[in-house]
Write a structure and sequence with these properties.
alpha+beta; 15 helices
């Protein structure tokens, strides 16, 4: 028997694999809403039973929140851990969905058939690609494709409050040679990719206080401090004319791209004009001495996510507000220290406050960036498998967002992670009418079969 037999089995059994995914998608496992607690447990139990049917020893493990699913099976010299999450985002606003988000349907679109449902792409469709590859392998060979640990989380979409304690308490059981994560996407519709850089994230909220109450602008305007004007001036100084961030020591720990990765990115022929045009923009606004891909994947950012104060209702009110508020997020790269940046940002703001003004701070979490060392042979092995399936050389890419689990695997289990996924940019994850292309589901299963054949 050869890999061709496994691939043929995947092709033949695709309707059954699709039915299994649709069944999982019908379970409304919304982790952030307590009303769906039983449904999250139901999704975990469904996965446990499916894993047992494949020959895994599987169980649903309780946490203070939603269950973790852990399973072990197979034999081999290389121990692989596969991670995914079975929880999904809320569906609000429901009025913007074309159908019930938990009544999945296969739909014909101008770009081909899609699976339409909440969680189709993020992350139920993605995690099932791995299980279906294992199922086909078991059907052909009678065994699982190597020594495998499966680790499914039920709180990824609600901040993963139970994840770190669970990993710490079960580190010996979960530790493997390398982690495999399927929660990312293709670079373009047909170009596979392995994510090797993930930006970290830091959130800050500040309130600038001035007078002890809102004031009439005719009586006090000009004489009293306006905290909105103070806040606007400070935040306006956060970038210079070239887009560089002016906070002291902000760039400490920012590393330059390796030459081989830079060359790969240049070869991707990223069209920033169409990328921006898709959201009604045209000119890159970040650091002007960097390419758009560098801005998105390997450079840090400081963004104002919200700013408010004074009267914002209908009509007009000549108020001079007592407070002004803002929320700021920082995307971090390389070895940037989130807590050092938090400290420096606060000191920078406080040094610019005029008399009669004070600032109140609220933290919104912090996580460092993750950079995967691609000298592990597993990276090139996986890259070869992806390239064979998609007929294009897979690229090592960055990710502008944050996937904390990759860093947690390194911090708490001492292992690197391979991040591969088959989502597309138009999957509308976290939005109404989420979908997952049937082609991506099918080729994702085939991709994992090829990768497992090479890795295990």
């Amino acid at each position: 028997m050869t890999l061709d037999a496994v691939l043929s089995r995947i092709d033949t059994d695709l309707p059954e694999a699709l039915d299994r995914l649709l069944h999982l998608l019908r379970i409304p496992s919304i982790s952030t809403d307590p009303a769906y607690k039983a449904d999250c447990a139901k999704a975990a139990d469904w996965l446990v039973e499916d894993l047992k049917s494949l020959g895994f020893e599987a169980s649903s493990r309780p946490t203070p929140g939603h269950p973790m699913v852990v399973a072990h099976g197979g034999e081999g010299d290389k121990h692989l851990l596969f991670y995914g999450h079975y929880d999904v985002q809320p569906v609000d606003p429901l009025s913007l969905w074309d159908r019930d988000p938990f009544d999945p349907e296969i739909q014909d679109t101008p770009k081909g058939k899609v699976i339409r449902a909440r969680g189709a792409s993020d992350d139920k469709g993605q995690l099932m690609t791995f299980l279906e590859a294992c199922r086909a392998w078991k059907a052909v060979y009678g065994t699982l494709p190597g020594k495998l640990t499966i680790f499914f989380e039920g709180e990824e979409e609600s901040g993963s409050p139970s994840l770190i304690p669970f990993m710490q308490a079960n580190a010996a059981e979960l530790k493997a040679d390398i982690a495999l994560i399927c929660d990312t996407g293709l670079f373009s519709d047909t170009a596979p990719a392995i994510v090797t850089m993930l930006r970290g994230l830091l959130g800050e909220e500040l309130t600038i206080h001035a007078a002890n109450k809102d004031l009439h602008s005719g009586s006090f305007g000009g004489a009293a401090q306006n905290p909105i004007r103070v806040l606007s001036r400070i935040l306006g100084n956060m970038h210079d004319a070239q887009g560089h961030i002016t906070i002291p020591q902000f760039y400490d720990g920012v590393t330059e791209l390796p030459d081989d990765i830079r060359q790969q990115w240049q070869g991707l022929a990223f069209d920033h004009a169409s990328f921006l045009a898709s959201v009604g923009l045209s000119v890159p606004a970040g650091e002007q001495d960097r390419t758009p891909l560098e801005m998105l994947w390997s450079r840090p950012t400081a963004e104002i996510n919200g700013i408010w104060g004074g009267y914002t209702g209908d009509g007009f009110k000549t108020v001079l507000p007592a407070q002004a508020h803002a929320k700021i997020s920082f995307r971090l790269v390389g070895d940037q220290d989130p807590e050092a940046i938090r400290k420096n940002f606060r000191a920078w703001v406080e040094a610019q406050l005029p008399a009669d003004c004070s600032v109140e701070w609220k933290s919104h979490g912090a996580g460092p960036a993750s950079v995967m060392p691609i000298d592990d042979p597993a990276f090139e092995i996986a890259r070869a498998g992806l390239s064979e399936e998609w007929g294009r050389k897979a690229a090592y890419v960055g990710c502008g967002g944050s996937i904390p689990i990759a860093g947690y695997f390194k911090t708490y289990l001492g292992m690197d992670a391979l991040l591969m996924g088959f989502g597309r940019d138009d999957d509308q994850i976290h939005s109404p009418n989420e979908k997952y292309d049937l082609e991506c589901y099918h080729k994702g299963i085939r991709s994992w079969a090829r990768i497992l054949a090479k890795l295990a």
